[in-house]
Design a protein that fits this description.
The chain has 248 residues and is an alpha+beta fold. It is 64% helix and 10% strand. It has five helices and six strands. Strands 1, 2, 3, 4, 5 and 6 form a six-stranded antiparallel sheet that branches. Helix 1 crosses helix 4 and helix 4 packs antiparallel against helix 5. The longest helix is centred in the first third of the chain and has 70 residues. The two termini are 43 Å apart.
């Protein structure tokens, strides 16, 4: 996966995770089959070998997902460093432009002084902001932004938020955030969203057909339960038992 962006790595992680979910489902089915074979004729038959093979594939998939997460964190840091370098390059370009502009102004002032046969003050033209001042301000802003990117690259941000109208859209929104910050494990995101749905069905199933709005907040790469919720109509749901319904 060398050369992939943080978002591309998150998308690869999402695909790997979906395959892992499918394999886990298949493993559960095979384990039931093996149990039935054992109960019927006292042997596991062919299901046992399939269970072992699939179990090994699942462990490899889990390891691959952990590897993708580590690569994603490294890719995010590198992208932030690149952004800092681009900002500094832009600042250097603006600085060169400022130097050229000052040279032109100085030459023009000298010519004007000769024409007028008198000394010309530097700030001859009164304006809200001279070009020199604007360029200097832009250079300062670019350098400040580059410094901020360097700090973020050294310690990538791990907090964020995502909003969506469905579970799939929420997962996609979290994946899209991977280019700006570290994101929580995708299986945790889906488990949280499904838990909200289950809480709604337990407490107010009449809202099943109503439009949804998921708000997911995370910090230090983990979901913040107290700030995350599913809003349906005038109620908020969280994947908890007692107290699953919250007034907005």
């Amino acid at each position: 996966m060398k050369g992939k962006s943080a978002v591309e790595l998150a998308q690869a992680e999402l695909r790997a995770w979906r395959q892992l979910v499918s394999k886990r489902t298949e493993l559960g089915r095979l384990e039931e089959t093996a149990a039935l074979e054992l109960a019927s004729d006292g042997s596991f038959g062919g299901a046992a070998d399939q269970v072992m093979r699939l179990g090994a594939e699942i462990r490899l998939a889990e390891a691959a997902i952990r590897g993708l997460r580590a690569q994603r964190a490294a890719a995010l840091a590198e992208e932030l460093r690149q952004r800092a370098a681009w900002l500094r390059r832009d600042a250097d370009g603006q600085r060169k432009e400022l130097d050229k502009h000052k040279s032109r102004v100085k030459a023009l002032m000298g010519e004007l002084a000769k024409i007028e046969e008198a000394e010309v003050v530097e700030n001859l033209v009164t304006t809200t902001e001279t070009r020199s001042e604007r360029l200097a301000r832009e250079i300062f802003a670019l350098e400040a932004k580059a410094g901020e990117m360097d700090q973020r690259a050294a310690n990538p941000p791990d907090s964020g938020r995502a909003e969506a109208a469905s579970v799939d859209e929420l997962i996609e929104a979290v994946v899209a955030s991977a280019g700006e910050c570290l994101i929580p494990p995708l299986e945790d995101v889906e488990a949280w969203a499904r838990g909200c749905e289950e809480a709604m069905r337990r407490t107010d199933p009449a809202l099943e057909a109503e439009p949804r709005r998921y708000l997911l907040v995370w910090a230090r790469g983990q979901i913040v339960p107290a700030e995350s919720f599913l809003a349906i109509s005038v109620k908020h749901f969280r994947p908890t038992g007692a107290g699953a319904v919250y007034a907005p």
